[in-house]
C-alpha cells in the first residue's frame, strides 16, 4: 500500500503571550488515514486543528497539506473542510442549501450540483430531508448536515472537532460506527479531535496523544493501549496499575526491571526513554490480571487480599492488596464466574501474563 | 381564604382593565376628535368631517415641518444604527476591559431626564460655536436613539455564532462572499428593526428638537407652536393621529422583524450552549 504523506506538521508552535498552546509539535499524517488527536481538555487539540484549517496561524513552524506549504493561504483556499463542534449550520438556509453552499462557487451545472448534493445527503442517511429548514433538525441530524456539507466539497482532508460530544451516549456510539464506515467508503483523510479515549480507540487507524501542547505518543490504538510509553499516556487511556521497579539492565530496545512481586521482567524499552537513576515504573492493565478460582494454578501468580469491590453490571472492579506492593492492584473481572460475589477481606490469588507488563517512562 | 382566592382574579382583571384604560383612553380621543366638525374637543360630537385632514396638506408651515422631520429622522436613524452596529459588534464579539461599563454609559440616555440632556447638548453646541439648525437636532436625536438601536442590535448579534463565518470561509467563500451570504442575512433583521425604531423615536421626539433647532421646526415642535391657537386644535389632532398611526405601523414592523430573527437564532442556540 502506497503511504503518501497528506499532512506534515513540522515544529509548529502557537503562543498566546508567554503561554504555549502548542509547543514545537511535529506530526505526519498519511493519505486516507483516520487519525485522532486525543488529549484532555485544554491540551491544544483544537488549536492544532484550526491551524490546519487556516483559522489560526502558527507562531512558528510550517504545516503542509498534500506537499503544499500552507503559510499565508487563507482558509477558503485550502483543500480541507471542517465539521465544527457547534456544527455551525447556517440557520437561514434549508438542508439542501446548506449542503450546496460551497458548491455554488464552483459553478457546476444545476443537475450536476443537485446530483452531488443528493449523493452527499444519501451518504449521511439524510436522503429526502433536503427541503427541511435548518432549525427544524435534531442534534444528530444537524451533525449529519455538517458532515454532508463538508464531504460534498470532496476535500483532501476532513477535520472533525469533537463532532460527537454533544450527542447522547447511544447516538454517539452509533455515529462512531457510521463515521468509521463513511471514512472507509470515501477514502478521505479524517482528522478527529476528541477527549474520549474509547472513541479514539474505536475509530482510528492511528492516534496522537497530547498533553499540555505536546504530543506524547503516536501509534495505532492497540499499541497505544497496550504499550503506552509513559505513565501519563497509560493513565489517560484507561486504568493502569503502576508498580515501582529497579532497572537491572538496559540495552538497545529492551530493558530488564526488578520488581517486588513480579520478579525480574524483561520487556520493550519505551520510545524516548530517558533514564533517571535506577528507578522505573512497570505497568499492567487491570483486565490483564485474572482471578484464580478454587485450586486453579498458573505459572505466574500473585496472592493477596480483597480490600474493596465495585459492581459495574457486566464487570466487577476489585481492589487487591498484595504484600510487597505499596499500592493495591486494581483488577477488572467479568461477572460470568461470580466475581461480584467475592467477599471483601477474602484471600485471593491472581494470574498475570508477563507479556502484559510494560515498562513506562515517568 | 378560599373566598379571597376566588375574588383575587376578578380584582386583578378589574385592575388590568383600568390600567389599560388610563393608558390608552386619551390616545383614543385623539382620532375621535380629529374627525369632529366642531373646533372644540367636546362630547357630544357635532358631526363627521375629514376637513382637518384636508387642511393639513395645504398648510405650507406644516408640510415644511413634515419634510424637516423626515430628513432629521432619516439621518438620525442611519447614524444611530451605524454607531449601534459598531458598538453592538464590539460588545458581542470582543472581550475588552470596561466592556460592561461602556455598555452602561451608552445605555444611560435611556434613564437620564431628557430635558437635562437637551440643555447640556445645547450648551455644548453653543460652546462649539455651532449654529442651531436641523443638524444639531440630528446630533441630539442620534444620542437618544443609540440606546434603543444598541439594545435591538445587541440582541440580534448575540445569537450570531462566529463559527458560521468560519464555516463559510471553510467552504471556500471569500470574505466578501461570506459577508453577503451569511453575515448580512443573519443580521439584516436587527438592522432593519433598529432603523425603524430610531426613525420612529426621532419622528416623535420633542424636547431635544425644541432646544436644539434654530428656525426650522420639526413636526412635534410645530404642534407645540399651534397649541397656542384654539382654532388650530383640530388640525393638531389630525396631525397627531397621523403621527400616531405612522409610529404604530413602524414599531409593529420593527417588532415582527426582530421576533422573526430571534426565533431563528434561538432555535439554533440550544445546541451551541
Ligand atoms: N485565543 C486564545 N487566547 C488565549 N489562550 C487561548 C486561546 N485559545 C486557546 N487558548 C488556550 O490554549 C490552550 C489549548 O486550547 P485548545 O486548543 O482549545 O484545547 P483543546 O485541546 O481542549 O481543544 C488552552 O489552555 C486555552 O486556554
Ligand atoms: Mg477543543
UniProtKB/TrEMBL annotation, chain B:
Residues 66-254 form the ABC transmembrane type-1 domain. The chain crosses the membrane at residues 12-35, 70-92, 104-126, 132-153, 190-213, 233-254. Pfam families: BPD_transp_1 (PF00528). It is a multi-pass membrane protein. SUPFAM superfamilies: MetI-like (SSF161098). GO terms for biological process: transmembrane transport. Keywords: Cell membrane, Membrane, Transmembrane, Transmembrane helix, Transport. Its main location: membrane. One of its GO terms (cellular component) is plasma membrane. InterPro entries: Bact_Polyamine_Transport, MetI-like, MetI-like_sf. It is found in: Cell membrane. Belongs to the binding-protein-dependent transport system permease family. CysTW subfamily. PANTHER family: PUTRESCINE TRANSPORT SYSTEM PERMEASE PROTEIN POTI (PTHR43848). This is ABC transporter permease.
Amino acid at each position: 500500500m502506497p503511504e503518501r504523506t497528506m499532512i506534515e506538521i513540522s515544529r509548529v508552535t502557537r503562543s498566546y503571550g508567554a503561554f504555549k498552546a502548542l509547543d514545537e509539535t511535529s506530526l505526519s499524517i498519511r493519505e486516507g488515514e483516520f487519525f485522532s488527536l486525543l488529549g484532555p481538555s485544554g491540551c491544544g487539540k483544537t488549536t492544532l486543528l484550526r491551524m490546519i484549517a487556516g483559522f489560526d496561524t502558527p507562531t512558528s513552524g510550517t504545516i503542509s497539506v498534500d506537499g503544499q506549504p500552507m503559510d499565508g493561504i487563507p482558509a477558503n483556499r485550502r483543500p480541507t473542510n471542517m465539521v465544527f463542534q457547534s456544527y455551525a449550520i447556517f440557520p437561514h438556509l434549508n438542508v439542501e442549501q446548506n449542503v450546496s453552499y460551497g458548491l455554488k462557487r464552483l459553478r457546476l451545472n444545476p443537475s450536476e450540483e443537485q446530483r452531488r448534493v443528493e449523493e452527499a445527503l444519501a451518504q449521511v442517511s439524510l436522503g429526502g430531508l433536503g427541503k427541511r429548514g435548518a432549525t427544524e433538525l435534531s442534534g444528530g441530524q444537524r451533525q449529519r448536515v455538517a458532515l454532508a456539507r463538508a464531504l460534498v466539497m470532496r476535500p483532501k482532508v476532513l477535520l472533525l472537532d469533537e463532532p460527537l460530544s454533544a450527542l447522547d451516549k447511544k447516538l454517539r456510539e452509533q455515529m462512531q460506527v457510521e463515521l468509521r464506515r463513511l471514512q472507509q467508503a470515501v477514502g478521505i483523510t479524517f482528522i478527529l479531535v476528541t477527549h474520549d479515549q474509547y472513541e479514539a480507540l474505536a475509530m482510528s487507524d492511528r492516534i496522537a496523544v497530547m498533553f499540555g501542547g505536546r504530543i506524547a505518543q503516536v501509534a495505532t490504538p492497540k499499541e497505544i493501549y497496550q504499550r503506552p510509553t509513559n505513565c501519563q499516556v497509560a493513565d489517560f487511556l484507561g486504568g493502569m496499575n503502576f508498580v515501582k521497579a529497579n532497572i537491572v539492565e538496559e540495552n538497545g530496545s529492551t530493558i530488564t526491571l526488578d520488581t517486588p512481586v513480579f520478579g525480574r521482567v524483561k520487556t520493550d524499552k519505551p520510545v524516548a526513554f530517558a533514564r533517571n537513576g535506577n528507578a522505573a515504573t512497570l505497568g499492567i492493565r487491570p483486565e490483564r490480571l485474572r482471578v484464580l478460582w478454587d485450586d486453579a494454578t498458573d505459572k505466574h501468580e500473585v496472592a493477596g487480599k480483597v480490600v474493596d469491590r465495585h459492581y459495574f453490571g457486566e464487570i466487577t472492579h476489585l481492589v487487591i492488596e498484595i504484600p510487597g506492593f505499596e499500592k493495591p492492584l486494581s483488577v477488572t473481572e467479568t461477572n460470568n464466574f461470580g466475581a461480584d460475589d467475592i467477599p471483601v477481606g477474602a484471600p485471593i490469588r491472581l494470574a498475570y501474563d508477563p507479556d502484559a507488563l510494560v515498562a513506562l517512562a515517568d | 381564604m378560599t373566598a379571597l382566592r376566588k375574588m383575587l382574579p376578578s380584582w386583578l382583571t378589574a385592575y388590568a382593565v383600568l390600567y389599560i384604560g388610563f393608558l390608552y383612553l386619551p390616545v383614543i380621543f385623539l382620532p375621535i376628535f380629529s374627525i369632529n366638525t366642531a373646533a372644540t374637543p367636546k362630547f357630544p360630537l357635532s358631526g363627521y368631517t375629514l376637513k382637518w385632514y384636508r387642511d393639513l396638506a395645504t398648510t405650507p408651515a406644516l408640510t415644511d415641518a413634515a419634510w424637516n422631520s423626515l430628513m432629521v429622522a432619516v439621518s438620525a436613524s442611519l447614524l444611530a444604527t451605524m454607531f449601534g452596529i459598531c458598538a453592538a459588534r464590539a460588545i458581542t464579539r470582543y472581550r475588552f476591559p470596561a466592556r460592561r461599563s461602556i455598555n452602561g454609559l451608552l445605555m444611560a440616555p435611556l434613564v437620564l431626564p431628557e430635558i437635562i440632556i437637551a440643555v447640556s447638548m445645547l450648551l455644548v453646541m453653543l460652546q462649539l460655536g455651532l449654529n442651531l439648525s436641523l443638524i444639531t437636532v440630528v446630533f441630539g436625536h442620534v444620542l437618544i436613539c443609540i440606546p434603543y438601536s444598541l439594545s435591538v442590535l445587541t440582541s440580534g448579534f448575540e445569537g450570531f455564532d462566529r463559527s458560521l463565518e468560519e464555516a463559510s470561509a471553510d467552504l471556500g467563500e471569500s470574505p466578501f462572499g461570506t459577508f453577503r451570504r451569511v453575515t448580512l442575512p443573519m443580521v439584516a433583521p436587527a438592522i432593519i428593526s433598529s432603523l425603524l425604531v430610531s426613525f420612529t423615536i426621532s419622528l416623535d421626539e420633542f424636547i431635544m428638537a425644541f432646544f436644539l433647532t434654530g428656525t426650522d421646526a420639526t413636526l412635534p415642535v410645530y404642534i407645540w407652536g399651534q397649541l397656542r391657537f384654539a382654532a388650530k386644535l383640530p388640525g393638531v389632532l389630525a396631525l397627531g393621529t397621523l403621527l400616531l398611526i405612522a409610529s404604530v405601523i413602524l414599531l409593529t414592523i420593527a417588532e415582527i422583524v426582530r421576533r422573526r430573527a430571534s426565533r431563528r437564532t434561538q432555535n439554533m442556540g440550544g445546541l451551541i450552549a
